[in-house]
Amino acid sequence: MTVRTGMAVAAVAALTAVAASGCATETPDYQSIWSTTSAASAEPTSTTDEAPLPLANYLEDAGVIGRPVAPDKLTDITVSIPTPPGWHPYQNTNLAPGTRMIAKGDTYPTAMLMVFELDGDFDVAEALSHAAVDAEMSQNFHKLNSSTDDFAGFPSSMIEGSYDLNGARMHTYNRVVIATGAPVRTEGGPPAAQQYLVQFTATGYADKAVEDADDIETIIDGFTVTVPNPADAPR
Prior knowledge:
The chain is α+β, with helices and mostly antiparallel strands.
């Protein structure tokens, strides 16, 4: 098969450095910032004008609150990834609430899907310009490919690359989509549409790129963000 540029597998190291074997997991940065109960800090989190600002920090500075929601609980939008044969759901108490993660065997490769309800106004294009910062700050990160093209009609940012993690060389794929769900009728007001941040990552060992490529391609190609037809939308 034709492998994507530098392809092997995917995941943004700083956001989703998850080792299925041994259950060594780093919770995504978004979770340490966004809360279901508290408002975002009014103080900027960046320290210098020159320092790269990760997406989560940009949204926090903009006053945006992100609330994690499980993909299978969404009603006004559909967000999903396929599960190739031999892959299985992966559960870990360190994973953020609502995270959907699948793994092959007891270690990499893995794929992870996170969705956040967004509450607050922000510049979508500007936000997505920060979407690759975490990946680019990973140890010895080397960019292989990137795109700012829309995904399924929604604004999006994608980056592929390789990085070092615990003495191993990894290949990564990360896509962030800012999506808007179908309008939902609200009590005492006009229909309103919820905005979401969708993050899909997959990750695996560089030296198994060819071995894992078919499965990873299947997951990437099957990643879906769609809005129900108006007749099927919740009311």
